Amino acid sequence: MSTVAVILAAGLGTRMKSRLPKVLHPILGDPSLLWALRTLPPDLGGAVVVVHHGKERVLAALESWRQAGLLPCSVTAVDQGEPLGTGHALQVCIPELDRLGATQVAILCGDVPLTSPATVRRLCSAEALLLAMDMQTPGSYGRVLQHADGQLAGLVEAKDATPEQLAVQRVNGGAYALPWPALRRALQDLTNDNAQKEYYLTDAVAAVAATLPVAVEVCDPEELAGMNSRHDQATLQAAAQRRIQRHWMAEGVTFLHPDSTLVGPRVVLSRDVLLEPGVRLEGAVTVGEGCRIGQGTVITDSALAEGVEIRPYCVIEQAIVGAGAKLGPFARLREGTDLAEGVHIGNFVETKKARLHRGAKANHLAYLGDTEIGEGTNIGAGVITCNYDGVNKHRTLIGSRVFVGSDTQLVAPVSIGDGALIGAGSTITQDVPADALALSRTAQTLREGGALRLRARQKKQTRLS
Ligand code: UD1
Ligand code: MG
To answer: Is the peptide bond before 329 cis (omega within 30 degrees of 0)?
Structure first.
């Protein structure tokens, strides 16, 4: 038996009022479609994503997720062409599902991000199942009609329903598992003879239910809620946030102000991590035991070892931070920053492609780009690696136990040997050997009493004018 998942993602998402296709709108930093794909069990015979509106961007996103190893199984895409309804979306998948040798299909929507992996696993291993939810105000959802024994009897869209059918509060969550031969037959007989002139998948599901028993599972409505508007997006994000925070609190993480803290679905926290108000962690972030992350700090795609202390308002992306490092306030670590144990990066320091070895320090106002800095080296205030000559980027190599005085410019490519000392205010354009003292300053001039004479002259000029 081979189960193939189909994810519907061709719709325009008119109510989002956006140039971005609906399924690419994010919940806690990850697009809705990625949430849906990540719930799929890895033993599937593949997944088919039905695309059309914003197809180029959706395909590009799928490829980037594949390259980043974020997809649990192999994923292909089918272009629906002009979308003529959910049933039409499945019709255009017939050749691809045949090619994949599907015997079972599990159908999900790309704009339903919060279905739990456990629910999707149950769906993918079921023979014939529909996921439903009970709603006080069922609104525009399709209504679920059941036989006395609970099996599915029919599905009717709100726009086609009789007043009695509209009163039904059990609604179709839009997720189904069905044997492929039976669904395939039903799809071939679909018509668009209904209020919306669409080919309804629900008609095909109802036709299958007439030939074999289809079970109905009632889920928590949060799991099947769709993102159709910006309001839905905000509601889903709040729900996802509650779920993720509850999980990490149970694992020993303190949130000083949960309402203002955003932690994405791919973030991994550890015991005794403390998150101050306004922290945002997105993408693949890991945080080691006992780290404290200061107020207003934003971290994306980075790894922090244990005991890191981040003071308020740091921005960290694609960086590695070693155990016990101290950062901020107001530090910016950019892509390719790799800090070893005990490194200090202070206020208004920017790093990019910078590898700092154990205990190196840059405590104030510096730009460290395309550089490697040795153990115990001290970078003074206002130091700049001049890494760009207008055409190419060059590297600055600084050894261990070096002292770089304040306001020094290191014009790359340049290297500084172990134990060297660079006087404050120097412009270093040539390599400095180990243990050397390098200094480049224009000679200072000094005139005794010069200030007095200058002030006297200025006073006289004011009197005359
Ligand atoms: C559908 C169901 C409805 C159910 C609801 C649950 C039908 C006819 N109705 O209604 O019973 O309660 O979902 O959310 O299926 N899509 C395509 N191609 C299309 C049309 C839609 O890929 O031609 C995609 C959309 O992008 C979306 C999903 O299918 O991801 C659902 O489509 P939508 O138009 O939102 O269906 P509903 O009217 O909400
Ligand atoms: Mg919908």
So the answer is: yes
